[in-house]
């Protein structure tokens, strides 16, 4: 049953990405190899300035990825951009949404807090998956999203060394929205690597019911920790507990 649910999830990703590529291509596609153009194995430097300094578009479609990120598409490759309150990550997938390693992949982030203001470039660093883990590796950089102005901060990506050699480079520019930042508790789709996690957890932490006994398992990311629930009705309880756990301590009462 789990394998069937995962297969349906991956199939739905393929449908969503196809729709995104056709209806939102201007927002989600890059201009250096990210559109349908075949640039061959060498980058055309004559287009580099106009590519990376082009008009700012809206943010990419807010499609939920395996890590609750947004998708950017370049040829046969898909990048999932995950914004956390203090960090930005990029995960890489192939045409069928199979995870790809980012070890040789290169990503550069440029933020501009206001149009015409100073630009802040940074290279993302490779984070390998822990030994023996089935977690996906990724690229990361520190990013304080509280400093980013809603609808005013420009975010630009420059990607290189795609596994698909027909599209060696791609660039994307869009405006920041606060809703792009992943919350502490986020519902995400099940993926093949979750099979072992479900088998290891076995029971729902809210009801105690065996996972899968009340329908499809629901997966949450609590911070970076996966948590599996028996049904969607348990999500609110987890959010309530985590909000209480992370609430700031009450201010001390001043002595009279």
Which word captures the global form?
globular
Q: Could you give the distance between the termini?
A: 64 Å
Q: Architecture of the largest domain, according to CATH? A: Sandwich
The SSE string, one letter per element, is HHHEEEEEEEEEEEHEEH
Task: Report the uncertain regions.
Answer: 1-30, 32-55
Chain oligomer state? single chain
Q: Which structural class fits the helix and strand makeup?
A: alpha+beta
Number of strands: 13
Report the top-level CATH class of the largest domain: Mainly Beta
Task: Explain what you see.
With 256 residues, this protein is an alpha+beta fold. It is 20% helix and 27% strand. The protein has 2 domains: 44-182, Immunoglobulin-like, CATH 2.60.40; 186-245. Strands 1, 2, 3, 4, 7 and 8 form a 6-stranded antiparallel beta sheet that branches. It has a 4-stranded antiparallel beta sheet with strand order 6-5-9-10, with no helix packed on it. The protein has a 3-stranded antiparallel beta sheet with strand order 11-12-13. A hairpin with a 2-residue loop joins strand 1 and strand 2 (77-84). The longest helix is centred in the first third of the chain and has 22 residues, at 2-23. The protein is globular, with a radius of gyration of 20 Å. The model is unreliable at 1-30 and 32-55 (pLDDT under 50).
Could you provide a short overview of the structure?
The chain is an alpha+beta fold. 20% of the residues lie in helices and 27% in strands.
Protein traits:
globular; 27% strand; six-stranded antiparallel beta sheet; 13 strands; alpha+beta
């Amino acid at each position: 049953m789990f394998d069937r649910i995962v297969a349906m999830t991956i199939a739905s990703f393929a449908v969503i990405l196809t729709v995104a590529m056709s209806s939102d291509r201007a927002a989600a596609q890059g201009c250096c190899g990210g559109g349908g153009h075949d640039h061959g194995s060498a980058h055309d430097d004559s287009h580099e300035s106009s590519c990376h300094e082009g008009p700012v578009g809206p943010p990419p479609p807010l499609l939920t990825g395996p890590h609750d990120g947004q998708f950017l598409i370049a040829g046969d490759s898909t990048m999932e951009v995950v914004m956390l309150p203090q960090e930005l990550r990029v995960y890489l997938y192939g045409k069928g949404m199979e995870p790809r390693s980012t070890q040789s992949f290169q990503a550069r982030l440029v933020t501009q807090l206001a149009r015409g203001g100073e630009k802040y470039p940074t290279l993302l660093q490779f984070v390998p998956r822990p030994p023996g883990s089935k977690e996906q590796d990724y690229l990361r950089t520190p990013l304080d999203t509280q400093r980013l102005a809603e609808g005013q901060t420009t975010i630009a990506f420059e990607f290189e060394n795609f596994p698909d050699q027909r599209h060696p480079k791609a660039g994307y520019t869009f405006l920041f929205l606060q809703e792009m930042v992943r919350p502490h508790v986020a519902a995400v789709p099940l993926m093949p690597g979750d099979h072992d996690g479900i088998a290891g957890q076995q029971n729902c932490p809210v009801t105690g019911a065996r996972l899968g006994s009340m329908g499809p398992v629901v997966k949450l990311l609590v911070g970076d920790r996966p948590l599996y629930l028996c049904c969607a009705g348990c999500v609110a309880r987890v959010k309530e507990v985590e909000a209480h756990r992370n609430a700031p301590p009450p201010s001390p009462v001043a002595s009279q």
